[in-house]
Design brief:
Elements: H1 6-13, H2 19-29, H3 31-34, H4 42-70, E1 80-85, H5 86-89, E2 101-105, H6 113-133, E3 151-153, H7 154-167, H8 170-180, E4 182-187, H9 189-203, H10 207-218, E5 242-243, H11 244-262, H12 270-279, H13 285-303, E6 308-310, E7 313-315, E8 319-320, H14 327-368
Parallel strand pairs: 2-3
Antiparallel strand pairs: 1-2, 1-4, 5-8, 6-7
Helix pairs in contact: 1-4, 2-4, 4-6, 7-8, 7-9, 8-10, 10-11, 10-14, 11-12, 11-13, 11-14, 12-13, 13-14
Length: about 375
């Protein structure tokens, strides 16, 4: 496998003058990455792929800024951060991914709120349209910078987080978990740091919130049956195929993220979260090794899933069809799913232990008062 060097990517993409040119570069640069690597090179492959995504997205934002200047709107009136959520935030995207993004900006001065909001509304539209031209379809779930919910000044975003923490509905907890996967890809990273530190700092001390997050997290199970059998799709066009995204990848991501939130670990990627959990001795070296290996196996299988084209844009498809479920792939999956079942139990145990410890601290505080 020829690894695409980050510096080479930045050099070529930084010279792109149009959004459509970025799509051409993506197609060209994805060539060396199109062949899925052997399992032992999975981490390096994802590193190269996500270097490519980051570079294209940054250049798209820069071109959108230039477009607004040409339209007479000038430069950004206050510092801002263009952020990624989901697999983009975790640097776990495969070659073809959709838009999961938002826009966070510094609180405007009194009297300038409407003008600042108008600028970023237009910038968000230009970025989203540019990303579509560059081959990134909009997020079907609406987590996108053109949605006012994910485009806010810092104060309003913090108020939104506080509201979700008060509501604690299934949907509001889901939004909090989405926000826990947040990474600045362009702009003022300090704005993102405020959000992440606030969310993680409060969540790890809130027993009710931790329990609600755990409930959401455990909703998605690995798709394995009795004796470790892989559960495949029974009906429809994907019959016989395996849902890699929701049957293997998401349960591992969610479980490890839950522990990161529980212990206040702000690392973005799943593998970095495993390292951090081991660093603070929340898990032993053996467990960390098993989790890392299982997650890399799932990433490897996920990279095998063919892309699909809809309306001129490429999409990830969650299912690996049955013709690609070779004996070797099934072996990887069975091992990863077995680890996933144990991980699920460990997450439940650790969060319950943490909430019990917090409750004891609260009781001790009441007695002291």
């Amino acid at each position: 496998m020829r690894r695409v060097r980050p510096e080479a990517i930045r050099e070529r993409i930084s010279r792109a003058e149009h959004f459509a040119e970025l799509l051409e570069l993506r197609m060209e640069l994805s060539g060396p990455l199109a062949a899925v690597p052997p399992p032992e090179q999975t981490a390096a492959w994802y590193g190269g792929v996500n270097d490519l995504h980051d570079a294209v997205i940054r250049r798209t934002v820069q071109l959108a800024e230039q477009l607004l200047k040409e339209e007479g709107m000038g430069a950004a009136p206050v510092p801002y951060a263009f952020v990624l959520y989901g697999s983009g935030a975790r640097r776990e995207q495969t070659l073809w991914s959709d838009q999961d993004n938002g826009l966070l900006y510094q609180n405007p001065s009194q009297g300038e709120e409407e003008a600042v909001e108008a600028y970023f509304e237009r910038l968000a539209a230009a970025i989203s349209e540019g990303l579509q031209e560059a081959g990134y379809p909009p997020c079907e779930g609406g987590v996108i910078c053109t949605n006012p919910q994910w485009r806010k000044p810092l104060k309003a975003y913090l108020e939104m987080l506080a509201g979700w923490e008060q509501e604690l509905t299934w949907e509001s907890v889901r939004y909090l978990l989405i926000s826990s996967d947040l990474r600045c890809v362009y702009g003022d990273e300090r704005l993102c740091r405020v959000i992440v530190e606030k969310l993680f700092g409060e969540a790890r001390r809130d027993t009710v919130l931790l329990e609600r997050m755990l409930h959401n997290t455990l909703h998605r199970k690995t798709a394995s049956g009795f004796f470790g059998r892989i559960v495949t799709e029974r009906y429809g066009e994907d019959a016989g195929g395996f849902d890699v995204k929701y049957g293997a990848y998401i349960p591992l991501v969610n479980g490890i993220r839950m522990l990161a939130v529980c212990f206040g670990l702000t690392e973005a990627s799943t593998l970095d979260r495993v390292k951090a959990l081991h660093r603070i001795q929340a898990i032993g070296s053996g467990t960390a090794g098993y989790w890392r290996q299982a997650f890399l196996e799932v990433l490897h299988v996920r990279a095998l899933v063919p892309r699909r084209e809809e309306n001129g844009l490429y999409h990830n498809h969650p299912y690996l069809n049955r013709t690609l479920l070779t004996a070797e792939v099934q072996k990887e999956l069975k091992h990863a799913l077995a680890v996933g079942r144990k991980l699920r139990a460990e997450v439940k145990k650790q969060v319950k232990r943490q909430t019990k410890s917090l409750l004891k601290e609260e009781e001790a505080g009441y007695e002291a008062d």
